[in-house]
Design goal:
Among the domains are: 77-169; 201-259. The chain has twelve helices and no strands. It has helices at 2-7, 11-29, 34-49, 52-61, 64-72, 77-89, 92-114, 123-128, 140-168, 170-195, 200-260, 264-270.
Length: 271
């Protein structure tokens, strides 16, 4: 019975143990993401109280991958700033180019109003020459240089971020995957335990049934052992009887051979 109690713990104890595991995850997430920590704490409370629907809802609200990254990742704020800068700078060359085109178009229109004879000149040539001082446009070569610098900066930032993510953060990714698997297992266990409606009386009844079944199996095993012992004794007796029969047969064969070997003439003379 004691062994069964160890194998099948009381339901309340099981819920408390799972709730403690969820609370531990909440404590780990608290310094990094308070929202995830709050959801995990409410999940632990729902597990203890046996509220299956609430536990299922809270477990579904937790993104295991995001939570694992929050708990395991120790990222320098500088890298976060660089990633944001990289994402924003993607649009910078486009913005600079269109700004240059807008100012150049306005300056070109003003130049043609003042000097219509320049309409046969190429637009890019006039732009590169600053539209002869008309307007406030930036020359084409300057716009191209700014775009090239921005694109080069984007390339450098992307390389630095990818090298750090793919080379230096390999161990961090492994820890994140392990933590993610732990979180998924804990969430699944929590929803399973919370959904179980087995009460204390039902648990005691189940344990009594298991104990009775164990006693029945024990008695059957004792009975089988006794039968096996009796069978071994019978086999030993049969072996002894077979040995006795074998000796008797050999004795009969030797007696028969001794009689047949006697000379008949000698028997007549004796008579």
């Amino acid at each position: 019975m004691a062994e069964i109690l160890k194998v099948v713990p009381p339901r309340a104890t099981e819920r408390q143990r799972v709730a403690d595991e969820v609370a531990q995850l909440a404590a780990e997430a608290q310094p990094h993401d308070a929202a995830i920590a709050v959801v995990l704490e409410r999940l632990a409370e729902a597990v203890v109280l046996g509220r299956a629907d609430e536990a299922k809802a809270y477990a579904a609200a937790v993104d295991a991958r995001a939570a694992a990254e929050v708990i395991t990742t120790r990222r320098n704020p500088i890298w976060g700033i660089l990633e944001v800068a990289r994402n924003v700078l993607v649009f910078a060359p486009i913005a600079v180019t269109w700004y240059g085109l807008s100012t150049a178009s306005a300056a070109y229109a003003q130049l043609l109003e003042q000097r219509p004879e320049l309409s046969d000149r190429p637009f890019l040539l006039l732009w590169e020459r600053g539209f002869q001082g008309v307007g406030n446009s930036i020359v084409f070569s300057t716009i191209a240089t700014i775009d090239a610098i921005l694109i080069g900066l984007l390339i450098v930032l992307s390389l630095a971020i990818h090298v750090r993510a793919d080379v230096r953060d390999a161990g961090t990714r492994a820890n994140s995957l392990l933590k993610e698997s732990q979180i998924r297992a804990t969430l699944a266990h929590a929803t399973s335990v919370a959904a179980s409606s087995l009460g204390t009386a039902e648990a005691d009844e189940l344990l009594d049934q298991m104990a009775a079944e164990e006693r029945r199996l024990f008695e059957r095993s004792i009975e089988r052992e006794q039968q096996l012992y009796d069978l071994e004794g019978a086999i030993a007796d049969l072996r002894q009887s077979a040995a006795d029969l074998s000796r008797a047969a050999r004795s009969l064969r030797s007696t028969k051979h001794g009689t047949s070997d006697t000379d008949p003439d000698e028997d007549v003379r004796t008579r």
